[in-house]
Amino acid sequence: MPLNIKEILKKKRLYLDGAMGSLLQNRIETIGPVPEALNLSQPELIKEIHQLYIDAGANIILSNTFGVNGYKLKDSGYTVEQLVTAGVKNVKALNPDYTALDVGPLGTLIGALGEVTFDEAVDYFKEIISAGDKAGADLIVIETMTDICEARAALIAAKAVSELPVIVSMTYEENKRTLTGSDALTVVNILEGLGADAIGINCSTGPDAMLPIIAELVRYASVPIMVEPNAGLPHMKGGKTVYDITIDQFTDYMVQIAEMGALILGGCCGTTPAYIEKMKGATKDLLLYQVTEKAFTAVSSSTKTIILGTDIHIIGECINPTTNPVLKASLRQGELSVVTQLATDQKKDGAHILDINLGLPDIDELMMMQEAVDTVSRLVDCPLQIDSSNPEVIEAVLRSYPGKAIINSVNGKKSSMAAIFPIAQKYGALVLGLTMDETGIPSLAADRFAIAGKIIKTAESYGISKKNILIDALVLTASAQQAEVRETIKTLEKLRAELGVPTVLGVSNISFGLPNRELLNRTFLAMALEAGLTTPIMNPSDREMMDTITAFRALWGFDGQCIAYANAYKDSSFGQAKSDLERTALGL
Amino acid sequence: MPLNIKEILKKKRLYLDGAMGSLLQNRIETIGPVPEALNLSQPELIKEIHQLYIDAGANIILSNTFGVNGYKLKDSGYTVEQLVTAGVKNVKALNPDYTALDVGPLGTLIGALGEVTFDEAVDYFKEIISAGDKAGADLIVIETMTDICEARAALIAAKAVSELPVIVSMTYEENKRTLTGSDALTVVNILEGLGADAIGINCSTGPDAMLPIIAELVRYASVPIMVEPNAGLPHMKGGKTVYDITIDQFTDYMVQIAEMGALILGGCCGTTPAYIEKMKGATKDLLLYQVTEKAFTAVSSSTKTIILGTDIHIIGECINPTTNPVLKASLRQGELSVVTQLATDQKKDGAHILDINLGLPDIDELMMMQEAVDTVSRLVDCPLQIDSSNPEVIEAVLRSYPGKAIINSVNGKKSSMAAIFPIAQKYGALVLGLTMDETGIPSLAADRFAIAGKIIKTAESYGISKKNILIDALVLTASAQQAEVRETIKTLEKLRAELGVPTVLGVSNISFGLPNRELLNRTFLAMALEAGLTTPIMNPSDREMMDTITAFRALWGFDGQCIAYANAYKDSSFGQAKSDLERTALGL
Ligand SMILES: [Zn+2]
Ligand SMILES: [Zn+2]
Ligand SMILES: [Zn+2]
What we know:
Helix content of chain A: 40-55%
Mean pLDDT of chain A: 95
Shape of chain A: elongated
Largest sheet of chain A: 8 strands, parallel
Number of strands of chain A: 20
Bound molecules: zinc ion
Oligomer: homodimer
């Protein structure tokens, strides 16, 4: 049975080792182009350093395999399997508590703009991790990642080829984001979705600048947090790189970090066995933080995360060829310019999330969807909702999407849940559940609510927790199914009161077939918001609907002290003016 | 202890006698200008006729006092006390089950347009009823009333000077309304409010045309219903008035009427002891209808009743000098033209009920209010809400108001309830209860709800049932008390779920101090309606608010099949057009 790192961390902190590179620099003249070749050429030297860390009290020793990957080793004369196997064996030979396979970045850009595609990256990581698993590592530490795309590729690879626990650790810049712009919440949301067993921060700036990021990681994560700071910032001194934080200073920070709730502690560049030893001594008896399950529902792009239900969030509905002939024509010509225009316009008009539906019978939906998601993701920071009736399209898009998307949609039919839930589980996506099933759309709120319950229960059987489910209470038209308008509202109220899930409605369906649709739409929207609608799907360029949301936010306290409201309308004194005009007309 | 007619009617029907006049016509040449003088001049003749009815099975014998009143007897040489006393004694001498004092109309118009003021009318009726009570009548039958004003005056007089049970019976025209326009529901709502022990229909057209009116009386009344038809319609035949319905036909109708639920049966013009005897024989063993308490809350003018909570009803707020300088100036000049203009405008714009507030420190509020209520009542058929901080003003207005008004307002303060509830109980008014008390306006919904409960409980201790209470959940401004917006909405939801009372809000308070007030007002209105607001107080000329109500009615099923909605906007295709324009602008 693989190591259960979460269980161990309920009872004690775990300590990692410190830097390998810094100690090697002191022991040999030049390290050479492939530092990990030392695993083969000087195994005793490598083991000596590992042993120093074991003696210092480290429980987890990282194999000397940080730079080992197929991309870097191309034309080096070494194979990944060769160096990984040797690296892991050098640790295992010393019999530490746990041997970790160390996995670093490939050293190149990934994705459409880089030299390595997402799938190629996954394959590179699979090669490393398969080798490490085979060589007998107890866990995998993916670290010093600067790009959430690459971290995802590595984690997906690990989950595909190994059952070992995986810690994924990223580095952050001064602006508290990774090099490619992900903030701590976004990292947590994406990596937890993909099944990371612990999440870390390493290298980066010194421990002081890490503190606010660690606070966020602990606040949002339902898994343990690993922290491995450098010994401060590097300086050149007498031709050598030295670090500016002393052992005592480092220890003081690590005490603080342990008290914040980090459970796996170690050191990165510049740290030595002395740092680890002193730090362990100062922290090992501190009260142990217990990781709690965080129940929020959040959707992420690579750079932005929205916690649903904390405010009203608008899903822009406009990227959908069914209702847009211009979009339809452009897609048939393989053109994405209309899609990108709609994306930027909706973002500008106030959409928080963009639904992307390219369902046309006569196009290559899979290819167009991947390209559209990729293009839109680079253009706007809104998280996406992937809207397709084809599970293959959904899976292909989710695999490389550098965020945590919403799948639109699953419903209560067995076949739908069987097709969608495995994909959602694998890629950590949110799922929008429609309250309908084999029997159609129930008239009564109680029956729609029951389907919501069935969807959530079935999702749980696939390992998808309730917090990954949104529920659409379904809007029928007032003209054809008037009695069911109340049922939709009641369904929202029941969902809010009894399940607490974020709720979704395609609001403007309500008015189909009636005149003055804006009036019905805005009135129904206000009612639905009051009843608990958190996430309307709508056209953000509909001014009356957006005004209604602005007003609702002021009335419901989402807009504290009505500041956004007052700003939005401070110049539109037409409201008051019209009222005064009417009073004058009445002779008042 | 006075007779408990309701208790008796739980166990058996009661039978009244038939016509007196028709039998007298057959026995003496000319009856003379004061028919009731026969009580003194020919008591044996009168007693002979009473005895015939007793022999026919009548339980209740009406004294021969229909035309006895101070207005008619002026200069006649007789006093009311003289003729009433003789009339009652003539019945009592025969020892029937029950002796009823018969009270007919004064025979002239009452009120500002008539020869007799409302208070004078009350005094005339007090004189009759005092005399009848003193002479030993068991109950009072006020009958053949054509004007709800006069029926009210008589009933108020009866309750003021006597503890005897009172039956109030009116006559109806072919259009199912009384001569002055009151329908059966309105009559029930007003007379029950004033404490009538039973309500009747008599004389009128023949029994056939009475059937739909009886159905309404039974459906709405929480007191027993009395029915006394004529023997059909009168015709002249050989110089004599004859009636066109035979005893058998009359009996058939009365069987039907008994089966509909009427519990006190008798005959009016043209009926004879033979009619009563046969009718009693045919109906006395029919299954006895049990009167049930009807729980609806209804507000009435003399010609229109609105059952609150069955739809959205708008209380027009515009007759209020605080917010209207033109009105203020006109009132200071003793002018009511602005009041009447505001009344007709608000009615035209869709108000169902009109609030009348003339609270100005420097006018004679009592006099102006009486005049305004009187004038407005003749001009528009909307029921009124009497809005004054002075209980004396409220009492004076309610006394003569020919409807069942709403008192605006009581609150949870002991002093407020002690001042208002006795007035409401006496005149059968509805009361609008504000959810505030000695501690101010509570922040939390639970506390406002508790005050509503206290108001209802205290009202019950004054003999005012819950159905006479409306509750105002109180709107504070979003700008100053943002957190309490939710509490107002929650209060509405709690009131709907747990008390089921009609709810009131002064909606536009919400936006005070913020720009674009219409937007906040209409959004808040939609939310409040969804949460259960039944009776908004608002300006019916506010187009956006009225549109919101039209839309809500379509969405909530009050507007069946959205017919009113579709009609209201069938020509305003601007809604769709604007949307299309926006789509074009987006390049869609
Ligand atoms: Zn480092
Ligand atoms: Zn009659
Ligand atoms: Zn609600």
